[in-house]
Amino acid sequence: MLFRSDLRRAVERAEFEVHFQPRVNLATGRIGSAEVLVRWRHPERGLIGPADFIPLAEETRLILPISEWVLRAACTQAVAWRAAGYPALRLAVNICACHFHKPGLPEQLAALLQETGLPPDQLELEITETVAMRDLDASVKLLEALQAQGIHLSMRSEEHTSELQSRQSI
After folding, report:
1. Which one, of 127, 114, 29, lies nearest residue 79 by Cα?
2. CB 144 within 8 A of CB 107
3. DSSP secondary structure code for residue 92 in this structure
4. Are 2 and 56 in contact (CB under 8 A)?
5. How far apart are CA 7 and CA 13, in angstroms?
6. Segment 122-165, tens digit of pLDDT
7. How far is the C-alpha of 106 from the C-alpha of 112, rounded, in Å?
8. Based on the number of CB atoms within 10 Å of its own CB, is 64 exposed (0-12), middle (13-18) or buried (19 or more)?
9. What residues have CB less than 8 Å from 7, skipping those under 6 apart?
10. Residue from 146, 144, 169 nearest 156 by CA
11. How far apart are CA 167 and CA 144, in angstroms?
12. DSSP string of 1-36, one letter each residue
């Protein structure tokens, strides 16, 4: 069983890892994007999948610093790959409700992209329909602001997200 204190310590010690799941274009056979996945490298329990810690992270609101860390780590890695000569790759990152509804998200993302050097069109934010529908007017304005920056957006149904979590692929 995981405890809140374990998760707090994990955030303080940056015990998380990003993994990248390629998305292959079936028509060309080429990798066009990758889904960013988070795992927790627990010092005693080893690698822990998201289904085992994300619900606790959401409950404790530690999901916000974890989400911000994942975004930064993913953007930094994508830029490093480009610098090493690999082709540009769009990264798809799941955004939790509290991160999506956090005031100043477009500005935060613009600053992160500028700081890391990742072009906005290489970032895709994935949100669930429930998150977007929570405050529809605010969500539409936010989505328009993110899209105006060149950030790609995708929406998943809760059913699909639950299926992925059960397979531990987020």
Report:
1. 114
2. no
3. E
4. yes
5. 10
6. 999 999 888 878 778 888 999 999 999 999 999 887 655 444 44
7. 10
8. middle
9. 53, 56, 57, 60, 62
10. 169
11. 32
12. ---HHHHHHHHHHT-EEEEEEEEE-TTT--EEEEEE
Task: List phi, psi (to 5°) of 102.
Answer: -70, 130
Place of tokens 């906005």: 120
Q: Say which DSSP state 157 is in.
A: -
pTM of the model: 0.86
Tokens 């987020």, residue?
170
DSSP 8-state symbol, 102: S
Q: Are 52 and 28 in contact (CB under 8 A)?
A: no
Q: Are 14 and 43 in contact (CB under 8 A)?
A: no
- The letter for the amino acid at 2 is L
The encoded tokens of residue 9 equal 């310590």
Q: Which residue bears the tokens 């950030």?
A: 151
Query: 149-160 in b/e burial notation, b at 16+ Cβ within 10 A?
Result: eebbbeebeeee
Listed in sequence order, the residues at least 6 apart from 115 whose beta carbon sits closer than 8 Å to its beta carbon are none
The pair of three-digit structure tokens given for residue 78, joined into one six-digit string? 């994508």
pLDDT tens for each residue of 33-49 = 999 999 999 999 999 99
